[in-house]
Amino acid sequence: MSNTSNTPIFTRRKFLAASSLATAGLVLSRTAPFAIAQPGQSPNSQINVALVGLGSQGRILLESMLNIPGLKFRAVCDIWKYALQYGRNKLKKAGHDVNVYTDIEDMLAKEKDLDVAIIATPDFWHAPHTVACHKAGLHVYCEKMMSNTIEGARSMVKASEAAGKLLQIGHQRRSNPRYLHVYNNLIRNAKLQGKFVAANGQWNRAVTDDLGFPKAYTIDAATLKKYGYRDMHQFRNWRWFRDLSGGPISDLGSHQIDIFAWFLGANPSTVFASGGIDYYKNHEWYDNVMVVYEYPLAHGTVRAFYQVQTATSSGGGYFENFMGDEGSISISENPKLTAAYREDRAPEWDQWVKKNYLRKTAAPPEPETKSVIDVRETKALAAYEIPVVLNKPIHQPHLENFFAAVQGKGKLTCDGRHAFESEVPIYRVNDSVAAKQVIQFKPEDYIA
């Protein structure tokens, strides 16, 4: 078992402390390499944007970006004319007259005034598209996972640093004010949890049908083959295919496994996972996966359990839960699933309530009969609300952070190198499922 606490953990903590403060407007670094406006670019200048990929995720990002001032959309790119038509019409209504492209190389050759590219293509195209945009001199915001392979992700970090351009990866919880409040104030400052002893998280979804498409917009076979797809079904449902993505554990789990490492301040030393293609018969990736990570903290090993289910929404939806010997924190992008709980043995939290870190909620009613309480059961936890609400689309703060960094007004909350460090343990989950073995990580595994 390897211990990563000497280098990656220290680096992560320093980075996140600085980035979170910068996001809060408390610190404006002028020395970090990725926080400085490029030569000749005014901090207040308009940012010229190209959007690459107009599927469901590209559309979500577009909706958020239309709320951000100072952006001028110049081009959109997608191999599907149906998606291009949507993007062009949507942007025209918002006052942006864009050029449309079906090939990114063509776009980069003709568009000479671009500052940034937003990449929301399927995972297996993230690395080639990001590298091409960096070589063209653009800053890049790329959706997670960075790639469908570790080597692809590593190539993105190297391309970003070789070009001296920003690379933000779309782990958007890193810029969510509720997550930042929990990390900075409740965990690091108040240390409400005491010693972390365990964590768990999940994302459970009900059964869904595969995506279809309007027959009039069928892409011809030669074009599909050129861009790596067998047919339209695979093109529309690429998340389920092995050569194109990492399946549900990377599509859904990567968001939350990223939070394990962030809040615990460590990278895992081992992973063991089990999963299978047990429900859907026309998919290549596991439709359910259960994972156990071991995190080596200073006071001992902390284990984190994660599950992703795609055939049931039972179990409470999607959340992350961090358990300590004095308190626990449940957090989610859904504010209804977010709360803190104090153990009966812990010191009172009144000072943190006075600072508005928390709000105490009413105690649950006493049970009608003592017979329902086993003598071995400990006293119920005292519950507290976490009074930070995001009043924007969930991706908007992360995009705002990226554009602020482009203008030299802040520092990225999830740059490529730190995203790589976070995603390495996610790539290895499917390996552990296939081998039915525990996989150990070495410190060098986390170096891009």
Automatic annotation (TrEMBL):
It comes from Ereboglobus luteus. It comes from the Bacteria. The lineage of its organism: Bacteria, Pseudomonadati, Verrucomicrobiota, Opitutia, Opitutales. Gene3D superfamilies: Dihydrodipicolinate Reductase, domain 2, NAD(P)-binding Rossmann-like Domain. This is Oxidoreductase. Transmembrane segments: none annotated. It holds the Pfam family GFO_IDH_MocA. Residues 1-37 form the signal peptide. Keywords: Oxidoreductase, Signal. Residues 228-433 form the Gfo/Idh/MocA-like oxidoreductase C-terminal domain. Residues 47-171 form the Gfo/Idh/MocA-like oxidoreductase N-terminal domain. One of its GO terms (molecular function) is nucleotide binding. InterPro entries: Gfo/Idh/MocA-like_OxRdtase_C, Gfo/Idh/MocA-like_OxRdtase_N, Gfo/Idh/MocA_oxidrdct_glycsds, NAD(P)-bd_dom_sf, TAT_signal.
